[in-house]
From TrEMBL:
This is Laccase domain-containing protein. InterPro entries: Cu_polyphenol_OxRdtase, Cu_polyphenol_OxRdtase_sf, Cytotoxic_necrot_fac-like_cat. PANTHER family: PURINE NUCLEOSIDE PHOSPHORYLASE LACC1 (PTHR30616:SF2), UNCHARACTERIZED PROTEIN YFIH (PTHR30616). It catalyses: S-methyl-5'-thioadenosine + phosphate = 5-(methylsulfanyl)-alpha-D-ribose 1-phosphate + adenine; inosine + phosphate = alpha-D-ribose 1-phosphate + hypoxanthine; adenosine + H2O + H(+) = inosine + NH4(+); adenosine + phosphate = alpha-D-ribose 1-phosphate + adenine. SUPFAM superfamilies: CNF1/YfiH-like putative cysteine hydrolases. Belongs to the purine nucleoside phosphorylase YfiH/LACC1 family. It comes from Deferribacter autotrophicus.
Length: 246
């Protein structure tokens, strides 16, 4: 659901314990200008770095965050176990921690984000584009919990099945792992793929209970309150944020 917190418009889960903070930003609010207009968190997409840093400082102030750790996302399956001393911009596509007060940040502009919360307080934040999902980012993220039962999985904002048009090369690449009979759609001679459904299927196949999965069903491409690389090419990035308060 949408919430406005001190002038920042955010997408938040329907239900979450107060000991955790989870949100995905929209474009609305703050300092970026031009094609990045609003709340851009991407350092490497052409925006003024001063404006990007001001956006981060605003979020840290509003949510009383000491540190947000980020990655150099490469559409792979490596999940970094991190603490307060872990440097940002390690190459990877997932973050896992047991630390209180450490914000885990994933950047997206059509790819999905996925947040996982364990019963003992462990958390993970994953970058789930199709390449990362195909390479096994979800399985690697689940392995980090080492048997700790998940009590919440949030599948966030991403491109929907009506907008994610694919070609034959995509089909040939993923057909050995993805559920093409359920997730590949044909319409007017074009092919589309339901990545959200594929993500859920992988979660269920790996023992995650369906009743702990929450989908935030906003499409980044359909809805112009989000950045979309497919739609705009030169654009910003949303921040998917997860932190354990206590």
């Amino acid at each position: 659901m949408l919430r406005d917190i001190e002038g920042i418009k955010l997408v938040v889960p329907e239900s979450l314990e107060e000991s955790f903070v989870s949100f995905t930003t929209t474009k609305f609010g703050s300092f970026s200008k031009g094609v990045y207009n609003g709340l851009n968190f991407g350092f490497f997409c052409g925006d003024d770095l001063v404006d990007v840093n001001r956006n981060y400082l605003l979020v840290k102030k509003v949510f009383d965050v000491k540190r947000i750790i980020l990655l150099r996302q490469v559409h792979g399956a490596y999940v970094v176990t991190c603490d307060m001393n872990t440097p940002s911009f390690i190459e990877g596509d997932g973050l896992f921690t047991k630390e209180v007060g450490l914000g885990l940040g994933i950047l997206t502009a059509d790819c999905f984000n996925m947040q996982l919360i364990g019963e003992n307080g462990s958390i993970a934040n994953l970058h789930c584009g199709w390449r990362s999902v195909y390479e096994g980012i979800i399985e690697r993220g689940l392995e980090k919990f080492e048997g700790e039962k998940l009590k919440k999985v949030i599948v966030g904002v991403g491109i929907c099945e009506k907008c994610f048009e694919v070609r034959e090369d995509f089909v040939n690449t993923v057909k050995d792992r993805f559920a093409m009979d359920e997730c590949l759609l044909m319409e007017n001679g074009k092919m589309f793929f339901n990545l959200r459904l594929q993500i859920e299927k992988i979660l269920l196949e790996n023992g995650v209970e369906k009743n702990c999965i929450e989908h935030i069903r906003y499409c980044s491409y359909c809805n112009d309150m989000f950045y979309s690389y497919r739609r705009d090419r030169v654009t910003g990035r949303m921040l998917s944020f997860l932190m354990r308060r206590r």
